[in-house]
Design a protein that fits this description.
This protein is an all-alpha fold and 310 residues long. Helix content is 61%, strand content 3%. It contains 17 helices and three strands.
Amino acid sequence: MARHGGGVPGAVVDLVIEEIEQLGREARCLLQGAAVVGDPFDLDLAAVAAGSPVRPAIDELVDAGLVRPADSIDTFRFRHPLLLGIVRDHTGPGWNTGAHARAAGVLARSGAPPAERAPHAARSARPGDRTSAGLLIRAADDVAARVPGDAAQWYADALRLLPHPTPTERVVLLTRRALALENAGRPGEARATFRDVLDLVAAGRNAAGSPPEAHRGTAPGCRGCARAPEGARIVVRRVLRPQTRRRARDELTDRERVVAALVSEGRTNREIGAALHLAEKTVERYVSGVLGKLGARTRAAVGGLLVPSR
């Protein structure tokens, strides 16, 4: 193992590496496979990630005090998160990619849920892999309400993997990423992502003003991408022009602006929830807030209040 420090003091890194170097080859390999799987780790999955029949080496790792049994049968934990981080940092990127690919394959064959497979797909799939991109989108959709930080990363990973994503795919996925970033307590990144959407829409508008091609080759799992409205451009155009918004519009949060724009297009709460991956009752609360801030008595009045005055 190479000795480079990362964020851990060099003396600590050296001591841990010396411990690891005392292990036999199979035990070291299993430890690296376990680091790929995470903490806690399933022994069989760690052995698959390691790429060789090293399962019996777990006894050596336990005897060395590097891992310990967890609550479930054949499940183990690292001695300390620092150990996990050092093992990961000192394993070659090529080996890691192969280990994640092996883990992703066995999880797919076993029917594991998207969120369990996503970390490995994100670290092993190659750009152009539309199937893996679809998996990451489904996983992000599934966890957006619970673990928005992971969802934001997986939306970004999906865009990285998609071969030639359509403008609509990019608008929808970047919008979902922005909402996830907002929920994760990262408002600056969320706002920047919304502005990326604005730039994308402006750049993609053709000379005739027709909508971008949005229906060909949609990523599997991108719910809402294929049917995303031409009004996705209107959403961003209306939402992100602070220099022309009225004071009432300035009071809307980024998410309320997106919801308001969709309301102005005649979308129902159910349709808005499907497009933005929000529960219908959550959408109802946002719509109520939008109406109150804009002073609109009906949903139909929202569109007129969003249009900048000339």
